[in-house]
Amino acid sequence: MDGAVVGAVVTVVFILLLLRSGLRVVNQVERGVVFRFGKALPGHRQPGITFLVPFADRMRKVNVQVVTLPIPTQEGITRDNVSVKVDAVVYFRVVDPAQATIEVQDYVFAVGQVAQSSLRSIIGKSDLDDLLSDRERLHEGLALMIDSPAAGWGVHIDRVEIKDVQLPESLKRSMSRQAEAERERRARVITADGEFQAAQQLANASRIMADTPEAMQLRLLQTVVEVAAEKNSTLVMPFPVELLRYFDRAARQFGKEDAPVKHVEPGDVPEQRVEPGDVPEQHVEPGDVPEQHVEPGDVPEQLPSRE
After folding, report:
1. Torsion angle of alpha carbons 122, 125, 127, 129, nearest 10°?
2. Phi, psi of 264 (to 5 degrees)
């Protein structure tokens, strides 16, 4: 009787140990792929406690978190014959644990190798300007090139980004000189445009001042106010020319009003003024002999006689 009880207890303990050996715990970030006698079972085990058949099942856990894989620096020549060094980073995750376990030996290493070759290929197909400015399109192209073979491994490429582009020092100096020249050109264009607009405004102001001379006086007074604000300067006030013209016009108008008005009667001979040095006009009548002045010693001219 005692032997039977001991045997039963031993049997129960053995069964419990056997069941204990078949219990497995799958974490939340993992999925379990079960192999029974070397053959993968369909589907995968979800997070939590799972039971395996002792001595028959083996389970391999696959992490389904997003993996950040840096791509080593790749050196290549762009389409416009510029030697550059480019490094990038790949973000991917496992969407099918069974394929990631069966179809490829090491999916992380495989994705890294495909990413390196794809990066070198994209460098040769792109220009330097695209690598520096149009990176979004390159990121989409890289993700598509890497995702094509990775889709058969149960891996999904979330994103690929180029981190840095290393240029030769000579090219950096050339680009800096080009950028400096471009900034100088823009500065000159902006300065010339400002001078052109200022000239237009000055021309408009000059036309307005020409139509209204009082505007010049107002501008002069405004300038005086601005200069007078600085107490360490001496102000010399010029006499305005417009004021002189005003006095000149007033004097002429006043002289015209004071001058006497002369009434000319019919038959009056206007008075003629003879200035010193003027020669009076002589009227010669027909038959008059002009007066001759004979100086002492002069011999009179003899006319030939008619015989």
Report:
1. -40
2. -105, 120
How far is it, in rounded angstroms, from Cα 62 to Cα 71? 22
| Token pair 């993968």: residue | 40
Pairing of strands 23-26, 48-51: antiparallel
Burial of 35 from C-beta contacts in 10 A (0-12 / 13-18 / 19+): middle
- pLDDT, one tens digit per residue, over 171-213 is 888 888 888 899 999 999 999 999 999 999 988 888 887 887 7
- Please give the DSSP secondary-structure letter assigned to residue 81: S
What's the rounded Cα separation, in Å, for the pair 124 and 79? 5
Q: Where are the alpha helices (DSSP H) in 126-232?
A: 128-133, 135-150, 169-211, 214-228
* Rounded Cα–Cα distance for residues 200 and 61 (Å): 79
Q: pLDDT by residue (tens digit) across 88-143?
A: 999 999 999 988 888 888 899 999 999 999 999 988 888 888 888 888 888 888 88
Q: Are strands 155-166 and 83-94 parallel, antiparallel or unpaired?
A: antiparallel
Gap between the Cα atoms of 128 and 78, Å rounded? 6
Distance between CA atoms of 299 and 302, rounded to whole angstroms? 9
Residue 274 has pLDDT above 50, yes or no: no
Q: Please state the pTM of the whole predicted model.
A: 0.56
118 neighbors 90 (Cβ within 8 angstroms): no
Q: Which of 111, 92, 86, 91 is nearest to 163 (CA)?
A: 86
Residue 275: predicted pLDDT: 52
Give the DSSP H or E segment for 153: none
